[in-house]
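#dry-run=false #mode=assembly
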Amino acid sequence: MTGPALDLDDTSRCALAESCERCGTHSDDLAVATAGTELGVYCLTLCDGCADDGRLPRRSAAATVRAVLAHCEHLDCDLDRMAATWRGEQR
Ligand SMILES: [Zn+2]
Ligand SMILES: [Zn+2]
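#status=ok
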């Protein structure tokens, strides 16, 4: 059973935070970005500057797992499917 390909970078159902998750800026330039980690892909809100920079806020492993699980919900997939897709993309 295979559904349509899973786009881990799809942020159309992710929530935009009120401020940048890396520098805390409140601005109109915020956008949802995705970040790939060893644990999976999660979404986060970044301002223009931080998005350009490409660096990510520090998160504990537990916080990363929570963020990855939340992004799974946004994508309406389970963690196994995300992990399989993510490993496939890294090849
Ligand atoms: Zn920022
Ligand atoms: Zn998300």
